Amino acid sequence: MNNLDTTNQNNYSYDTKHLEIHVLGGLKINKLESLRVTLAITKVKNTNTLRHSIDLYNDNQVEKFVRRIAERLEIGTSITRKVLQELTKELENYRFILLDKQQQAAAPKFKTLNASEEKRDIDFLKKGKLLSRTNEYIGKSGVIGEINNRLLMYLIFTSRKTNNPLHCISLGSSGVGKTHLQSKVAELIPEEDKVEITVLSANAFYYFNRTELQHKLILIEDLDGAESVLYPLRELQSKKRITKTVVHKDSKGTTKTIHLTVEGPVSVAGCTTQESVYEDNSNRSFLLYIDESEEQDNRIMNYQRKASAGKLNEQEQLAAASILQNIQRVLKPIKVINPFAEHLTLPKSVFKPRRTNSHYLQFIEAITFYKQYQREKQYDKETGEEYIETTIEDIQEANEIITEVLLRKSDTITGACRNYLEKLKRYLFIENQTTYTSTEIRRNLRIKETTLRRYHKQLLEEGYIKKVKGKKGQMYHYEITDLQEYTNLKEQISIVLQNCISQINLATSP
Questions:
Q1: Considering only CA atoms, which of 187, 197, 169, 182 is closest in space to residue 359?
Q2: Are 135 and 147 contacting, i.e. CB atoms less than 8 angstroms apart?
Q3: Dihedral over Cα of 206, 209, 213, 218: its sign
Q4: β-strands 335-337, 266-272 pairing
Q5: Strand 49-55 to 36-43 pairing
Q6: 130 vs 100: which has the higher pLDDT
Q7: What are the tens digits of pLDDT across the range 464-479?
Q8: Tens of pLDDT along 132-184?
Q9: Which of 180, 191, 189, 170 lies closest to 142, judged by CA?
Q10: How far apart are CA 171 and CA 154, in angstroms?
């Protein structure tokens, strides 16, 4: 019995009683309508070899090849024809095996929880102080500092399982750990639920399977490297589907128009240093400003030293990450209704309040969704649809987490400029000064001249600082116009959010 030997993937061998055949270069599996191979054929006990590329599905080519083999190797055409037919069948069968392996390798790996694992994870979600315990486990998994950002990001990533997912963009200077934070929190999401993008062509998004991206987390390492896909991503975020019309020729050569549709919803996360460049994407996302403080620098460097010294408990980190991943697997799609939504208002200082208000309400729903095992399931009397309701506690926890986001949404200057201004205020307080010069700040805060000039231009235009003439012959000095403006803004936002809770308590009290 003749067998195809595929041990060497680049040189299959097929030996018969009369002929020895080698398939050079293996098989191509991308075109099933043809079977193009390169064959090296030798007659048994003969050194003469015939090499030829041929499509074994092309009958004319095969007949010509049969005659050439018969002439060159001095063997009967009937024997040659039979051998090639048997080889074709063997190669055909093996190609189907390769296709199956490729599809299995490309298919997402779904982990199925056993009964004890599922019970453990549901018990975790049922216990009190869920958000604080979750944040603790995020820290145990290896996310250093960023107490508020990491929990906010984890909840945003969790919202991918809802019908109205949230999105986020991490912002900060180069090298402060934007990508690190995103990738570490993303490790807490099951592999089958996320798609990581480094570089992708503009049209590539339209060639995903129709439902391949549904309820997925799409991670963009650097928005600068994915500019070509930002438009379809924005459409997926807003409309929850994208469609592209292309011209296609069928097997008969007839030109037809076909529509390529990819369904959402999706949750999108990305990193960038350029806040103003991606304004359209920023408007649809929560903006997470990375902690660039000296304290955070020290926390990260201490962690790096412990890692280098081999003093980190890596097993504990993996165990914490595994628990948070499995928790994601037991969360089930369910509708969330917020009975207190009509009592919730945003501070008037918030820019683009319509979209921000939508994000605020969706974030509260995301917290309720995460706490689904602590909520009694209810049913719509008309449709019978299952749902859970938001509690006052959910709103209070959302307000605590989201205050910083609303504060940034209310600011008239960019996040990088705000970070500089707050750092400047601390410097002047420590030095007991009210005025400063550009040279002094460049030297003491270690800021490049071009960067400092850009910050000062923005702060002067918005009225946060003013020029003050120094002594005769000296350079200009600068003075901050209101040292308490940011603190006051934060207090205003806190008061508005607290008033919402008070109104809800008043409306629901007997």
A1: 169
A2: yes
A3: negative
A4: unpaired
A5: antiparallel
A6: 130
A7: 999 887 665 566 788 9
A8: 999 999 999 999 888 999 999 999 999 999 999 999 988 887 777 788 889 99
A9: 180
A10: 16
Strand partners, 244: 260
> Could you tell me the pLDDT band of residue 1, with boundaries at 50, 70 and 90?
very low
Residue type for position 303? Y
The predicted-structure confidence for 245-269, as pLDDT tens digits, reads as follows: 888 776 667 788 888 888 889 998 9
Beta carbons of 205 and 243 less than 8 angstroms apart:
no
Q: What is the mean pLDDT of residues 313-324?
A: 91
Residue (of 142, 159, 150) closest to 320 by Cα position: 142
Three-state DSSP class for 460?
helix
Question: So what's the pLDDT on residue 328?
Answer: 93
pLDDT digits (tens, 9 = 90+) for 222-242: 777 677 777 888 888 888 888
E strand or H helix that includes residue 184: helix 178-186
CB-based contact 168:286 (threshold 8 Å)? yes
With bands split at pLDDT 50, 70 and 90, how would you rate the model's confidence at 111? confident
Residue 297 CA to residue 70 CA, distance in Å, equals 77
What is 195-248 written as a DSSP string? EEES---TTGGGGS-TTTTTTEEEEES-GGGGGGGHHHHHHHHHHSEEEEEEEE
| Strand-strand pairing, 241-249 and 386-389 | unpaired
Listing DSSP states for 21-73 in one string gives: EEEET----S-TT--EEEEEEEETT---EEEEEEETT-HHHHHHHHHHHHHHH
Residue 135's CB is within 10 A of a number of other CB atoms, namely 20
Q: What span, in angstroms and rounded, lies between the C-alpha atoms of 400 and 232?
A: 33
User: What are the residues whose beta carbons fall under 8 Å from the beta carbon of 463, sequence distance 6 or more?
Assistant: 481
- Separation between Cα atoms, residue 172 and residue 274, nearest integer Å: 8
Say how far apart CA 13 and CA 409 lie, in whole Å. Answer: 67
Q: Comparing 259 with 276, which gets the higher pLDDT?
A: 259
Dihedrals phi, psi of 96, to nearest 5 degrees: -65, -35
376-435 pLDDT, tens digit per residue, is: 999 988 888 899 999 999 999 999 998 888 888 888 888 888 888 999 999 999 999 888
> 47, 114 in Cβ contact below 8 A?
no
- Contacts of residue 210, Cβ cutoff 8 Å, sequence gap at least 6: 261, 262, 263
Among 268, 198, 279, residue whose Cα is nearest residue 240: 268
Q: Could you give the CA distance from residue 450 to residue 452 in angstroms, rounded to a whole number?
A: 5
Provide the residue count of the chain: 510
| Euclidean distance between CA atoms 190 and 217, whole angstroms | 10
What six digits make up the tokens of 417? 């400029």
The residue written with tokens 């398939």 in the block is 23
